[in-house]
Specification:
It is a single chain. This protein is mainly alpha-helical. The chain has one domain. It contains three helices and no strands. Helix 2 packs across helix 3 (about 55-85). The termini are far apart.
Length: about 90
C-alpha cells in the first residue's frame, strides 16, 4: 500500500531551494537560534567536566572561557579555509 512519490509532490513540500536566499528577517532569526544552540553545545561539556572534577567557580569560568575562545578560533580557521576553497587560492 505504499504510495509512489511524484516529483511534483516533493516540489510542493520545498520552501527554499539550495541556492535561494532567505528573507533578511528570517535569516537573522535563524542565525540567532543557531547561535543559542551553539552556546549550549560549547558551554555544557566544560560545566559537566568541572562538576565531576569538583572544581570551584573560578575554574568553571576558566574552562567555559577557553571553550568559547577555542570555538571562535576554529570557526575563524574553518571560514578562512572555505573562502580559499571557493575562491581557488
Amino acid at each position: 500500500m505504499s504510495r509512489d512519490i511524484d516529483e511534483q509532490d516533493i516540489e510542493e513540500d520545498i520552501y527554499y531551494r539550495f541556492e535561494d536566499r532567505l528573507p533578511l528577517g528570517e535569516t537573522i532569526l535563524l542565525g540567532f537560534q543557531h547561535m543559542l544552540i551553539m552556546f549550549v553545545g560549547i558551554i555544557t561539556p566544560p560545566l559537566i567536566i568541572v562538576g565531576v572534577a569538583g572544581l570551584n567557580a573560578a575554574d568553571s569560568a576558566f574552562f567555559v572561557n577557553m571553550a568559547l575562545i577555542v570555538s571562535g578560533v576554529t570557526s575563524y580557521i574553518q571560514c578562512r579555509k572555505m573562502i580559499r576553497l571557493v575562491l581557488d587560492f
